[in-house]
Amino acid sequence: MVSIARCECVRKGSNPFSYQQDKFDNTNNIFMTILIDTFCALLITCATLVVQSSNPVYSVLFLILAFFNASALVLLSGHDYMAALFIVLYVGAMCTFFLFAIMILDIKVEPISEKRLKQAPINTIIAIVFALQCKNILNEFSSSFANVELLLNNNPNCIDYLNYELQYCFNSSILDYTTQIYSLGSILYTTYALQLIIASLILLSAMLGSIALTLSRSTTAKGQHIYEQNIRDFKLTITNNV
């Protein structure tokens, strides 16, 4: 029976293993959708707890979890370098620094006041408006692909033609395979070199400003004024106490 079914599939011009492959692809797509929805829900929950938590230490911990979920979403989208950058830069440097700085400081945990509870309806309205705006943006973005979907539905052979063209491009020796790090580096240091230098200067000024703000000068400490010492008269500086 299996050989007869295989012969029928071959005679009709279809792949005998296409059903198993389609089933595997559908299972993989469902699993990826569940993962993306889970990480999105965790990201929204952690971001909400960052704002609502009264303890700043817990806020930083939830911020670290939020960046972990964001890096997982970026990794699922195929950008492995950006996911590693999220972990190393935000979680490894900034959030850990904020966590230790807050733990070292003596911060009093204040309970949720009535003023914050009174502001809850306004915050809810702002959140609903923001969600509706995001929904409108997504609808406009999806409507831009309506013509493409209509074209694919009316021309079933168009997908096969596109697959053939993509297969030809990726199998050709003309295509130069590059990594994401090489692509980002070449774009940053060629096309956006000026913007990169400006961003570096902004970071440098922020670092110098933070050092200047935290530098404490004591008024009781004794210092040496070299210019005033050099312009003084020699006869007035040395006295003969006999």
TrEMBL record:
Query: What is the residue range of the signal peptide feature?
Result: none
Query: By its UniProt entry, which Gene3D superfamilies does this protein fall under?
Result: NADH-ubiquinone/plastoquinone oxidoreductase chain 6, subunit NuoJ (1.20.120.1200)
Family from the record = Belongs to the complex I subunit 6 family.
InterPro entries (UniProt xref): NADH_UbQ/plastoQ_OxRdtase_su6 (IPR001457), Nuo/plastoQ_OxRdtase_6_NuoJ (IPR042106)
Instruction: Give the residue spans that cross the bilayer.
Output: 30-50, 57-76, 82-105, 192-215
The reactions it catalyses are: a ubiquinone + NADH + 5 H(+)(in) = a ubiquinol + NAD(+) + 4 H(+)(out)
Any coiled-coil ranges, and where?
A: none
Annotated organism of origin? Ulva meridionalis
The membrane topology term of the UniProt record is:
Multi-pass membrane protein
The answer to whether UniProt assigns keyword Transmembrane to this entry is yes
Please report the name of this protein according to its UniProt entry. Answer: NADH-ubiquinone oxidoreductase chain 6
- The reply to whether Electron transport figures as a keyword in the UniProt entry is yes
Q: What does this protein do?
A: Core subunit of the mitochondrial membrane respiratory chain NADH dehydrogenase (Complex I) which catalyzes electron transfer from NADH through the respiratory chain, using ubiquinone as an electron acceptor. Essential for the catalytic activity and assembly of complex I.
Choose one Gene Ontology CC annotation of this protein and give it.
Answer: mitochondrial membrane
List localization entries: Mitochondrion membrane
Keyword list, A-Z: Electron transport, Membrane, Mitochondrion, NAD, Respiratory chain, Translocase, Transmembrane, Transmembrane helix, Transport, Ubiquinone
Q: Which domain of life is it from?
A: Eukaryota
E.C. number, please?
7.1.1.2
Give one GO molecular function term: NADH dehydrogenase (ubiquinone) activity
